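Researcher: I'd like a candidate sequence for this fold, 557 residues long. If you have to choose between options at a position, lean toward the conservative one.
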């Protein structure tokens, strides 16, 4: 889509910086609408002198001061009538660095249906009271949108998509003064217009005039937030249906960002130590509900998986949103249990070994072993509760960049015998050599068999899975061939009040004969997929791959 932008500059008695602002907007090729919101003299005359329609600058005057919101809305009407697709809003007080405008316009061209807004990068000149006031508004906006995507709703430098704005103004009555900037951002978000936030340097020049009425405007903003919260509660189903989609589709599970802050996880950890598991789950329930409601990718993946799993199991159960919430709550409890296990809150006796003879034989085998694990159950808890001598010989290959806060918290409590976690994006020759040395010393290496490698997304085999066909990584089986050691599958699932771990032989050695390599790989992958499916069907709520597993329907025979 080709955009045709203009600029709107609302002004109430701001005129000293206005010529420079208009000049910089025109230098970017933007036609400019200056809206004089009933300015007094000498500002009124100075603003009127800028009117030069033949040079792309048009001044419109509101005879009576109506407020910033009314002035911007008047500018919208002129912009829409002029056939423009987008409008830059630039305040006339000179506080915003217009050097950010090319970036804002570039983002608008890339995402023409988004509202592109600056978020302030303040210098030391910002008054402390302004920072506190803005943070109060930020918190309310987070509540009203059930999202952290609008990082600042009060910045006076932004680019609006005029089609969406025109429909909003025709349907809703918005605040007309200092409550306008925040309200229009929230209501556009409710209508599915995604925000794009760009850092903008903001300064407060000495002696700068402010039109903010400390008492009246704070009361207006308070009333605005009250209206928005009540409206959000009343319209919640519609708001959730129209949540703005992610602007860039997540192509791979490793690109999913960890959600939440480190201090939030520390709060949960403190709640566990004070209240125990049951009390901590009660504290987590509303927090998990928030992340479930706002985490579209994970929510969709959960509901799709549960529907497929229960259909394959022959269950008549119809999957509803609360099943997904239970699924995500189980995932949160899994992380809580792993944390508890590492911190000594869960004794090793809580985990039973399903086949202790196989475990003992593997432990006594001097050849080492490759353990292929999965995201079913709680392998991290099993690692915490296993015998210290087994932990010492275990190296876990993982990509955990999208769980850094959680890993940072747990790392504080892991002992020196926790084994090693090696961050990997792909298993290359150097990594394979280092791992062979470990195997030669009789150590174990663990790798997940149900996630496509971060950098080698083409290195997969399709295998039957849950009534369809899904991609599984070749990496574990290629690594097994290189390591020339026994391969085991390892699972740990919750059963009742405890956990059951199972180490089961998969292959004494992975053989990939020349000329039949792909066929052999497909066979190993299919065997693993069958076993993984059985674990998933035992309890679908213990599957924790919250991304699109790309299960496709089986091809017709």
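Model: Candidate sequence:
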């Amino acid at each position: 889509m080709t955009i045709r932008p203009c600029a709107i500059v609302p002004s109430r008695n701001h005129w000293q910086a206005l010529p420079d602002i208009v000049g910089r907007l025109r230098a970017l090729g933007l036609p400019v609408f200056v809206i004089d919101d009933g300015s007094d003299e000498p500002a009124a005359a100075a603003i009127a002198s800028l009117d030069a329609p033949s040079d792309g600058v048009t001044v419109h005057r509101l005879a009576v001061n109506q407020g910033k919101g009314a002035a911007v809305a008047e500018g919208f009407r002129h912009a829409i009538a002029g056939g423009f697709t987008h409008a830059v809003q630039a305040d006339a007080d000179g506080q915003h660095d217009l050097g950010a405008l090319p970036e804002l316009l570039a983002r608008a061209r890339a995402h023409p249906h988004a509202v592109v807004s600056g978020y302030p990068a303040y210098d030391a000149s910002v008054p402390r009271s302004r920072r506190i006031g803005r943070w109060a508004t930020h918190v309310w906006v987070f509540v009203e949108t059930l999202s952290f995507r609008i990082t600042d709703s009060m910045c006076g430098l932004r680019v609006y998509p005029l089609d969406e704005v025109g429909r909003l103004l025709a349907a809703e009555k918005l605040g007309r003064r200092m409550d306008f900037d925040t309200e229009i951002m929230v209501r556009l978000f409710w209508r599915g217009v995604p925000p794009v936030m760009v850092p903008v340097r903001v300064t407060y020049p000495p002696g700068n005039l402010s039109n903010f009425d400390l008492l009246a405007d704070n009361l207006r903003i308070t009333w605005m937030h009250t209206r928005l919260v009540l409206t959000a509660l009343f319209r919640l189903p519609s708001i959730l249906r129209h949540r703005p989609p992610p602007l860039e589709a997540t192509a791979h599970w490793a690109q999913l960002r960890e959600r939440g802050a480190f201090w939030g996880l520390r709060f949960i950890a403190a709640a566990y130590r004070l209240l125990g598991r049951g009390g901590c789950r009660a504290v987590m329930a509303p927090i998990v509900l928030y992340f479930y409601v706002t985490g579209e990718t994970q929510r969709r993946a959960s509901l799709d998986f549960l529907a497929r799993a229960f259909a394959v199991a022959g269950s008549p159960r119809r999957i509803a949103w609360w099943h997904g919430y239970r699924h995500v709550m189980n995932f949160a409890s899994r992380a809580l249990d792993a944390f508890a296990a590492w911190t000594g809150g869960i004794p090793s006796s809580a985990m039973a070994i399903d086949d202790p003879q196989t475990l003992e034989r593997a432990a006594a085998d001097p050849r080492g072993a490759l353990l292929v694990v999965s995201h079913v159950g709680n392998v991290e808890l099993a690692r915490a509760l296993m015998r210290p001598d087994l932990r010492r010989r275990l190296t876990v290959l993982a990509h955990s960049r999208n769980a850094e806060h959680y890993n940072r918290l747990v790392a504080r409590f892991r002992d020196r015998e926790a084994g090693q976690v090696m961050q990997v994006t792909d298993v290359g020759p150097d990594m394979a050599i280092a791992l062979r040395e470990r195997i030669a010393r009789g150590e174990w290496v663990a790798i997940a068999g149900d996630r496509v490698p971060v950098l080698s997304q083409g290195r997969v085999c399709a295998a039957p899975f849950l009534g369809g066909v899904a991609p599984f990584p070749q990496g574990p089986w290629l690594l097994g061939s290189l390591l020339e050691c026994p391969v085991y599958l390892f699972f740990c699932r919750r059963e009742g009040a405890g956990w059951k771990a199972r180490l089961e032989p998969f292959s004494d050695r992975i053989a990939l004969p020349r000329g039949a390599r792909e066929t052999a790989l497909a066979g190993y992958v299919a065997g693993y997929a069958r076993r993984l499916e059985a674990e998933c069907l035992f309890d679908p709520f213990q599957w924790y791959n919250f991304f699109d597993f790309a299960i496709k329907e089986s091809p017709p025979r």
